[in-house]
Structure prediction request, 400 residues.
Amino acid sequence: MRVLLAEDQGMVREALAALLSLEDDLEVVAQVSRGDEVAAAVAEHQVDVAVLDIEMPGMTGIDACAEVRRARPRTKVVIATTFGRPGYLRRAMESGADAFLVKDAPAAELAEAIRRVLRGEKVIDPTLAAAALTEGANPLTGRERDVLAAAADGAVNADIAARLHLSEGTVRNYLSMAIQKTAARNRAEAVRIAREKGWL
Amino acid sequence: MRVLLAEDQGMVREALAALLSLEDDLEVVAQVSRGDEVAAAVAEHQVDVAVLDIEMPGMTGIDACAEVRRARPRTKVVIATTFGRPGYLRRAMESGADAFLVKDAPAAELAEAIRRVLRGEKVIDPTLAAAALTEGANPLTGRERDVLAAAADGAVNADIAARLHLSEGTVRNYLSMAIQKTAARNRAEAVRIAREKGWL
DNA sequence: CTCGGGCCGTGACATCCGTCATGCGGAGGT
DNA sequence: ACCTCCGCATGACGGATGTCACGGCCCGAG
Prediction:
């Protein structure tokens, strides 16, 4: 079966390629390091399974998954990520992913998951599935996410207001909402919590 | 040559093991997922080269490197990390590392670096070396680092004071110093900048 | 021994931040 | 038509934060 690997860290990507090449029934026919190169490569190399990291330059693996789903629905998608955040899992499934793995897991699970999605199964870590279900959906509105994301790197209110073309008071209001919804005590904690839950 | 791999993400660790096993002259004789297991494993398996990640539970790869250096000076140490922060490079070299690689690099460089350190050479990314030299040393004092680290996850002043057994005013003073030294405009930005430079 | 620097604290002050009340317009649902 | 939710805004208030000046203790370098 023809496999594509998308992962931005060269060493990790090539190591995973070496690992999968040990499997007789799998062949790594393409490797990309950016999310926005996935869809084209999948089409060009007639890929049967795409293994995607989430955090990548250009485009997230989740968005790339949605692109693949639209352009070539028969290609299976496996999301393999460092962070087992419930929100990531939820969004990955909404984008049509067939499997969701965390890189903490033993390597054998990757090949195993690939074979299972090829048989038409879905593969999800049960612990994560439970967490995603108990958490409920992302409670932040679009603008609240925007403001929180802009505050994430330490910008002051005036900066955020300028960047998003808002009034400073509005920025304060959205942040206040976000802080309450995350049950945090200030913006920094709100950012941390939202990140952990995959809301950002 | 006998190689140890220390890396917390199972999938990545085993993939790197597969990669290195393709090299005729290298043999992966031990794998650990925690920093505090490195030294014992190095001694037990008579390891010639230890490949260490930095971010690991239990102990950082840099501290583990120092342990190995003390307990078994002839063992070479290769630090392989996700983040090419100048401060990491500096601290790794101070701990006696023989090579410093970023995981962005192509996989071939890993085996190459291992062979070179075995010949007694040091291997450092020249771009990073330049950055480390232009940056100068960490300007933060021990206590300033402590309070900044405690503020990193969104704790309020009272929390930090309690955690470090300080007065709240003292926390404010240290944070103010840290903010000035990082040329930041608030604690959150100071945390970000200190992280980027590897001062934390 | 003196001097600088790290460490810890206090007090005062200006500013920033988080909260709340309130308002308006638009989109979507019943 | 009505209600609800989102987006955007203003104004006011208290508390948190950042800055500054100042003092103390201890240690190592010169």
